[in-house]
Amino acid sequence: MGEKLRVGVIGATGMVGQRYVTLLANHPWFEVKVVAASAHSAGQTYEESIAGRWKMQDPIPAGVKDLTVLDVKDIEAVTSQVDFVFSAVSMSKDEIRVIEEEYAKTETPVVSNNSAHRWTPDVPMIVPEINPDHSDVIKYQRERLGTKRGFIAVKPNCSIQSYTPALSAWKKFEPTQVIATTYQAISGAGKTLEDAPEIIGNVIPYIAGEEAKSEDEPLKIWGHVDDEKKQIVSAETPAITSQCLRVPVLYGHTAAAFVNFKQNPTKEDLIEALESYRGVPQELELPSAPKQFIQYMTEDDRPQVRYDVNYENGMGISIGRLRPDKIFDWKFVGLSHNTSRGAAGGAILCAELLKAQGYIAAK
Predict the structure, then answer these.
(1) Catalytically active residues, by annotation
(2) Based on the domain organization, do 315 and 175 belong to the same domain?
(3) Assigned domain for 55 exists
(4) Which of 194, 313, 318, 342 falls 20 to 30 Å from 145 in CA-CA distance?
(5) CA-based angle 347:349:350, to the nearest 5?
(6) Predicted model pTM
(7) Domain ranges, residue 52
(8) Is the pLDDT of residue 75 over 90?
(9) Does any domain span residue 362?
(10) Co-location of 240 and 94 in the same domain
(11) Residues ≥6 apart with Cβ < 8 Å to 213
């Protein structure tokens, strides 16, 4: 392709922002031109702003470390230099809703990791392999915002990535009821193990807001764009109930899930559906897309965070321990990388999809 699109990362100094700038280093389509954060960091170089707070294993990308951090609230300064932005700002939900719309109204597309707009009816919440057609709602959002190219798209919560893809692959078998218990890494709270001594040797059985997200967000993803209502209408089934626990793991969300089906699939049917499941990102060979979206692991003790969290550069999903259950039809274990597929990487793949669909382009 020609010249790379110019990217801004707003909220660039937090853990997800750091993951963005790391994953975008040497990206074939996108180049980080602007990093923005709170007024406290503004005016410093990026390297200075995260001194003592760099949480990634890779070094700070050379193309970013000397960029001057802008104030995220100086919207004109940011948007005048970029074609679109990734949002990982740390504010209240009300503040995030306002500032992301302000960015969009400057005709700058916003691809957000935040939860603030996930339930805005005309904002698509996209897992590119599952619901790429939800971008169709953007035309209605632009009508509301009064924009021609500006809009907001979001990715879903990291907690659902380890089981929702499997249920999507099994859609033809009509899942009706799901129990999903997630065992979530500390990086999901923006911390490392060193930052969170309370998690060492411990399990915390509460993560604020996670259970509602785990139960409701898959239904929006499985919903449809209603052209009369000009919004996305959520699916009504399957019914999902969940519990979410924080565990002493740095990266990787594991799910133990139980599922009932209206149909009567065999184990072979279910595994074949997982392994053959492909989406638009695979068909288009998008830069961040895993070649094999879902792998099924036959070993009794897999998937494991230690060995499997980085499958397909952290963008693939690992499923194992599929077996009949005494109460439900089937049960399984899933694993996903929570800051790659579940956060920045998933948003980057979403932006690649939106570019391929023509929603993101050079100004």
Answers:
(1) 158, 253
(2) yes
(3) yes
(4) 342
(5) 60
(6) 0.96
(7) 5-157+344-356
(8) yes
(9) no
(10) no
(11) 115, 118, 156, 157, 159, 160
